[in-house]
């Protein structure tokens, strides 16, 4: 019976959930950049790049915490639709509302005080060590 569960991925899913519980995903570093062009191609692990300045942030750019490598850019400008709000408290970012990458990855998560909270319906395996 155990081989059937592994065959159908239930064991992998349970392993991924256990890994998430052991090592919570975080964005402990917030860095500010003047322009989108000045954001490095490779961000440090757990870094969230903010384009603009502390008083007028324009974009939040970060590597998605899922197991598929892709970059997320969300607008922080009220004149854009959709747009998100950024709050940095004690150096840890919170972004509201949730980030939902409908296609192609289906990632859906919240970032609160630098920590990633996955939506239970569209849960993805995550990279370790963030």
Task: Write structural notes for this entry.
Helix content is 15%, strand content 37%. It has one domain (2-118). It starts with a helix and ends in a 12-residue tail after the last strand. Residues 18-23 and 122-130 have low confidence and may be disordered. It has 130 residues and is mainly β. The protein has helices at 2-7, 10-22, and strands spanning 29-33, 47-52, 57-63, 71-75, 85-89, 92-101, 107-112, 115-118. The longest helix has 13 residues, at 10-22. A hairpin with a 5-residue loop joins strand 6 and strand 7.
Strand order of the largest sheet: 1-2-3-4
Q: Which whole number gives the mean pLDDT?
A: 81
What is the CA-atom radius of gyration, in angstroms? 16 Å
Shape: globular
Uncertain stretches: 18-23, 122-130
* Number of helical stretches of at least 4 residues: 2
**Structural domain tally:** 1
**Alpha carbon gap, first and last residue:** 34 Å
The computed structural class is mainly beta
**Biggest sheet character:** 4 strands, mixed
Q: Please give the share of residues in helix.
A: 10-25%
Q: What's the quaternary structure here?
A: single chain
Structure in a nutshell:
The chain has 130 residues and is mainly beta.
Task: Give the secondary structure arrangement, pairings included.
Layout: H1 2-7, H2 10-22, E1 29-33, E2 47-52, E3 57-63, E4 71-75, E5 85-89, E6 92-101, E7 107-112, E8 115-118
Parallel strand pairs: 1-2
Antiparallel strand pairs: 2-3, 3-4, 5-6, 6-7, 7-8
């Amino acid at each position: 019976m155990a081989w059937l569960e592994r065959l159908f991925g239930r064991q992998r899913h349970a392993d991924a959930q256990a890994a998430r519980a052991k090592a919570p995903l975080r964005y402990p570093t917030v860095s500010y950049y003047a322009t989108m062009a000045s954001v490095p191609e490779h961000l440090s692990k757990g870094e969230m790049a903010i384009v603009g300045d502390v008083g007028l942030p324009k974009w939040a750019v970060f590597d998605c915490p899922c197991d598929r490598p892709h970059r997320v850019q969300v607008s922080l400008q009220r004149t854009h639709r959709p747009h998100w709000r950024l709050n940095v408290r004690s150096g840890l970012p919170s972004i509201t509302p949730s980030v939902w990458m409908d296609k192609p990855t289906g990632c859906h998560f919240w970032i609160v005080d630098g920590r990633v909270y996955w939506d239970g319906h569209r849960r993805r395996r995550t990279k370790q060590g963030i």
